[in-house]
Amino acid sequence: LSLSLSLSLSVSMGIAAQHLALSSSLIRDNPASFLSYSTSSQALISPAFRRAASKRAGAPRLGTLGPGRWPVPASSPISAALHESGGDNSNNADPVELNGALDRRQLLLGSSSLGIAGLPSLLLPQSALGSPVQPPDLKLCTTPIDPGNGAPSVNCCLPVSTTITDFKLPTNLPMRTRLSAHQVPSSYIAKYNQAYKLLRELPASDPRQYSQQANVHCAFCDAAYDVNGTQIEYQVHNSWLFFPWHRWYLYFHERILATLIKDDTFTLPFWNWDSATGYTLPPIYNDSKSSLYNANRNPLHRTPAVVDLNYNFTESNSSAAALLAANNTLMYRQMVSNSKTPSLFFGQSYRQGDEPNPGAGTIENLPHGTVHVWTGNPANPNDEDMGTFYSAGRDPIFHAHHSNIDRLWEVWKSLGGRRQDLTDSDYLNATFLFYDENAKLVRVRIGDALDTTKLAYKYQDVPNGWLNAAPRSRTSSDTAVNFGPGGGPHPAMAGRLREKLKEKYRKFKAGLKEFKERASGNIDKKERALVKRPRKVRADDFDEEILVLEGVRVASDEKIKFDVYINLVDDDDDDDDDKVGCDVPEYAGSFVNVPHMGMKMGEGRSVRKSNFRIGIGEVLKELDAEDDDDFAITIVPRGKPSVPISIDNVRIEYE
Ligand code: C2O
């Protein structure tokens, strides 16, 4: 036994080196731009950003950038191959966690990863193989995680289990209906309270216990693990993993609560923030004596404050009615006009070996991200609990928030057109690990999560008031001219307006340059640029026109939001168009980053790099710009102006 073990170890060292040689050339272009971010934009880096950069001091230190220019942990076999001198890596590693990790990886390499034709799968870069993302080995956990800004560090490593079984779809569960949290009967509230009370009372070591459940979110969102054997952060946000991972997370959380109160009919409620009946914090979470209460919420946003789905991290001065109207337009954008293809809704593909955070879908950016930050307490170091991923799962409202996201997935599929589940086998076969209601570790497949009725639940049918809430177009919104038949503009008047508008666009665009002509990609204030269209498509065609903001880079642990507008002409030269909201026809979409810890890059900076894609066919049509050769974009950063954002390039693609 010992002979074969040492043989496989020495073989695997050679394999690791080959793997590195192959994969480093594939990923070289990306780290290069990371480097330019950290060097050329030094002057723009705020003290907060520097602080963020030095966070996670307690985590295993990462090595310097090697010849492949990709930072890898100093203790990994890959880095041993990188540093030609070899060096004494043991000094750099957490003595317990990482030495164990190394052994484990070597064993995996030598034994179980002999795949097709007897070749170890690591001989080829995983990304080139295009395989589904596999869950991390729970033994290989980075701890502790330092949330920064003075918040105590957390250990969100999940309990390790030696047996993993494949999840089987439930056969004995009754069909359950998740209800709107604003409309649940008092008998339900009593059950829900009792279930949470029991959840909090479970022994701390029980994987189902309240804190352990919160840790599940922290563990898979804050770089506690890497994608098996790759030294790449394991991340379930900002990609196509977002919807299905959270669906499974809720499923097991719900089953655990149901089991604790011995009631298989129990479901989580959903926070229907997009509706005329659910736009405040649900009152069931407000009672400080209830087990559903959480003190770490924004005191300004207690009921009856109206939720601001387009939250700019500062209080809006709009009336409640205006906020609700704006919320509806935003929902229309995210659910109807801007997510006509699966990738626009679900987010970008993410396969084994890919860099994390390739890009979020419409809903994940907002309202998902904005409601997180709106709910958390800005007086806490990192807007805990809901405002940052490591602590979000501590607030029972998290699950109601995500239940609504999960419901919107169902609603979106019912809206027709190309709105269907993804069919890529690397999506369907991606797997996750969860502890089930019996505290057993199970492996689940995304493909088993697409039909909620197979998981024995559905949603209360509620009206989706935003379905037709398109913003009013510029050529018909002036009530002074609405004297034509049926209250619309008179055709002659509409023609005049249209021409005036075209003339305005022409003048506005004449003063603009393309994005690539800018000196740097940094966006620290409002920016305008011209975008040339390679060809014209119509919104009702099969093709959707997509505006891509390529290589958006932000510090992963900062709350970030910026808005993108199309042909937003500033009429009166007072340069106040950054006061514009999401309820104008020019609004195209927003990028949102909910703070989370990422794996440190190079000198310890944790940078999130994503593509931000916006479906704009319908916006162009609403603006009467679908036949133009080009259009203007305005990028408006929200929140703190000192937070750096950088964008590589802006281009158009079709899907
Ligand atoms: Cu995993 Cu709302 O976040």
UniProtKB/TrEMBL annotation:
It comes from the Eukaryota. This is Tyrosinase copper-binding domain-containing protein. The keyword Oxidoreductase applies. PROSITE patterns: TYROSINASE_1. GO terms for molecular function: catechol oxidase activity; metal ion binding. Residues 76-97 are annotated as: Disordered. Residues 1-17 form the signal peptide. It comes from Adiantum capillus-veneris (Maidenhair fern).
